[in-house]
């Protein structure tokens, strides 16, 4: 279908890092089933490096592709680098998303940040709260 | 395998219709308004098509107005009756919550102009009753507009009974019969219908052509001002090839209506039975009162667009009422109107068959949908929660 780039379709059809994880270092979940998309990211962090990452997504083609690409972009990276991931980087890596689907990339960025925040919280690591999204599952649909 | 299962969206032009149209593209290309013999031959084709369509609908040729399709017919029917009602101080219109947007958005526009609109509840099964209509009629009611068959879930309404109630109360009755014509028996006289919309491409005719039937005496105002075509009710040179193609397609559909309906109903039942085996799935719309070829399901824990894309990869072309496929933030208003919660409505699938669909194709679709739903559930955090008992299933 011409709705999406070949890259999006590739990540949708063959998602990388899909699945769940036993004893993750951090988990982040964003979205709302009412709005039609939920993303959950699991991180395994050792010595400040993201050694493994998994995702589960309920949502459209671009939501699944965005999750897949976002996990690829942070896999094997230091936590500090993963924290700088932006939705724009996800969109660019996917060779673009349709305007009405940009919010899927925002969800991917937020899910990863919440998983990192969860890791910090679990391990009592101090952090700058302004680096993270305001809340989980804000309860409204994203209208980007 | 390539299976087109989106016949409620549009159908393949039939060979008969194409063959009927071709001479009017290059050979008989006259304008029916021209006095010379080239134009007059086009006029003859127009007259012939009009009378054949009138015969199929059970009306007079003068009661057939050619339009660009269902949306234009709906707009013109509602606008005309509303304008006439307003002159008489009647500004109340009755409809249902699950009409096509051509009807709902026209009604919204009229509300801004001071009309009052009552949208009847279609209940969990997607059905409205004549009694509900009767109870909603007030002395101010000028129009009742209720679709014959719903385009998404395929439920068929008791049109003749609703028409009878309207006639008894002196209220005009319009039905959007876009999904019904060519698929279900239609007779405007017997079914007490004052106005009816139809669209050719839903019954293997060409796109961009339709009919507004308006019973003699019902006031009709033009939406498109221009020449005297369609007895001053629709300006613009008639689309002769499309009109001829529509008449041919309608004749063909009506000639085979009974056998096609029996065949489609058997296929539909097979499809419903197969999809019902998917755990936590539910058929949308009344079990019996439905179009012969339309099936609509919700599957818990998944989203419709990804379902469609993966079915496309397997050669199955279908549609969904999810927000992502509707281009808005909300899922289908039809599914919401029958009480499906948002999270369930996002996981909907419509498969609409044609007389060309085979049993083998139905079985292939059942397998494809079963596999894709299972896969999408396996990567869905919602499904994980449901299975773990963290969240309760909505569909049992």
Verbal overview:
The complex is a heterodimer of chains A (144) and B (396). Chain A is globular. The relative contact order of chain A is 0.21. Chain A has 144 residues and is α+β, with helices and mostly antiparallel strands. Chain A has a single domain, classed as Alpha-Beta Complex (Sufe protein. Chain: A). In chain A, 38% of the residues lie in helices and 19% in strands. Chain B is of the alpha/beta class. In chain B, strand 3 (92-96), helix 5 (101-112) and strand 4 (116-120) form a beta-alpha-beta unit. The model of chain B has no long low-confidence stretch (mean pLDDT 97). In chain B, the strands form 3 sheets. Chain B has a 7-stranded mixed beta sheet, sandwiched between helices. In chain B, strands 9-10-12 form a 3-stranded antiparallel beta sheet. In chain B, helix 1 runs antiparallel to helix 9 (240-255), helix 10 packs parallel to helix 15 and helix 11 (304-313) crosses helix 15 (359-378). The A-B interface holds A 1, 9, 12-13, 15, 18-20, 29, 33-40, 56-61, 63-64, 100-101, 141, 143 and B 301-306, 309-310, 312-313, 322-324, 327, 329, 331, 341-343, 346, 379-384.
Labels describing this entry:
heterodimer; A: 144 residues; alpha+beta; Sufe protein. Chain: A; 3-stranded antiparallel β-sheet; globular; B: 396 residues; alpha/beta; Aspartate Aminotransferase, domain 2; 7-stranded mixed β-sheet; 12 strands
Shape of chain B: globular
Instruction: Tell me the number of helical segments of chain B per DSSP (H or I, 4 or more residues long).
Output: 16
Q: Stretches of chain B where pLDDT falls below 50 for ≥5 residues?
A: none
Q: How does CATH name the architecture of chain A? A: Alpha-Beta Complex
DSSP helical segment count of chain A: 5
For the secondary structure, the number of strands of chain B is 12
CATH classification, class level of chain A:
Alpha Beta
Q: Within the CATH hierarchy, at the fold level, what is the topology of the largest domain in chain B?
A: Aspartate Aminotransferase, domain 2
**Main sheet of chain A, how many strands, which sense, barrel?**
3 strands, antiparallel
Strand content of chain A: 15-25%
| Main sheet record of chain B | 7 strands, mixed
């Amino acid at each position: 279908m011409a709705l999406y780039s070949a890259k999006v379709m590739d990540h949708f059809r063959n998602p990388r890092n899909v699945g769940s994880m036993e004893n993750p270092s951090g988990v982040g979940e964003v979205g709302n089933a009412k709005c039609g998309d939920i993303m959950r990211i699991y991180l395994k962090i050792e010595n400040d490096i993201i050694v493994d990452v998994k995702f589960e997504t309920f949502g459209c083609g671009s939501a699944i592709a965005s999750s897949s690409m976002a996990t690829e972009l942070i896999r094997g990276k230091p936590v500090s680098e993963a924290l700088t991931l932006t939705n724009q980087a996800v969109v660019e890596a996917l060779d673009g998303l349709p305007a009405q689907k940009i919010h899927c990339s925002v969800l991917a960025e937020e899910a990863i940040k919440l998983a990192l925040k969860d890791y910090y919280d679990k391990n009592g690591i101090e952090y700058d709260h302004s680096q993270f999204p305001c809340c989980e599952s804000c309860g409204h649909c994203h209208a980007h | 395998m390539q299976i087109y299962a989106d016949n409620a969206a549009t159908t393949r032009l039939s060979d008969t219709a194409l063959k009927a149209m071709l001479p009017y593209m290059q050979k008989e290309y006259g304008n029916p308004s021209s006095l010379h013999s080239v134009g007059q031959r086009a006029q003859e084709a127009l007259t012939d098509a009009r009378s054949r369509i009138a015969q199929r609908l059970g009306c007079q040729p003068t009661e057939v107005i050619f339009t660009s399709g269902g949306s234009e017919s709906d707009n013109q029917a509602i606008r005309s009756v509303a304008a006439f009602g307003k002159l008489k101080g009647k500004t109340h219109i009755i409809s249902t919550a699950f009409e096509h947007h051509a009807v709902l958005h026209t009604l919204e526009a009229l509300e801004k102009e001071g009309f009052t609109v009552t949208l009847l509840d279609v209940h969990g099964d997607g059905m409205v009753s004549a009694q509900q209509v009767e109870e909603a009629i007030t002395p101010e009611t000028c129009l009742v507009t209720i679709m014959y068959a719903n385009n998404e879930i395929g439920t068929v309404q008791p049109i003749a009974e609703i028409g009878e109630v309207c006639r008894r109360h002196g209220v005009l009755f319009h039905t959007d019969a876009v999904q019904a014509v060519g698929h279900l028996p239609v007779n405007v006289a017997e079914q007490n219908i004052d106005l009816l919309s139809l669209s050719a491409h839903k019954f293997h005719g060409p796109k961009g052509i339709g009919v507004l039937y308006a019973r003699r005496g019902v006031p009709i105002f033009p939406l498109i001002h221009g020449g005297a075509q369609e007895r001053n009710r629709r300006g613009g040179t008639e689309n002769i090839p499309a009109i001829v193609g529509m008449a041919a397609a309608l004749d063909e559909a009506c000639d085979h209506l009974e056998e096609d309906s029996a065949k489609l109903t058997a296929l539909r039942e097979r499809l419903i039975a197969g999809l019902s085996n998917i755990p936590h799935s539910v058929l949308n719309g009344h079990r019996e009162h439905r179009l012969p070829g339309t099936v609509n399901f919700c599957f818990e824990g998944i989203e419709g667009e990804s379902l469609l894309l993966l079915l496309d990869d397997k050669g199955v072309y279908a549609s969904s009422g999810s927000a992502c496929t509707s281009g808005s933030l909300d899922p289908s208003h039809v599914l919401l109107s029958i009480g499906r919660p948002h999270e369930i409505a996002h996981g909907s699938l419509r498969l609409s068959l044609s007389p060309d669909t085979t049993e083998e194709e139905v079985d292939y679709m059942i397998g494809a949908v079963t596999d894709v739903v299972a896969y999408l559930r396996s990567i869905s955090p919602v499904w994980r929660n449901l299975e773990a008992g963290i969240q309760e299933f909505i569909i049992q």
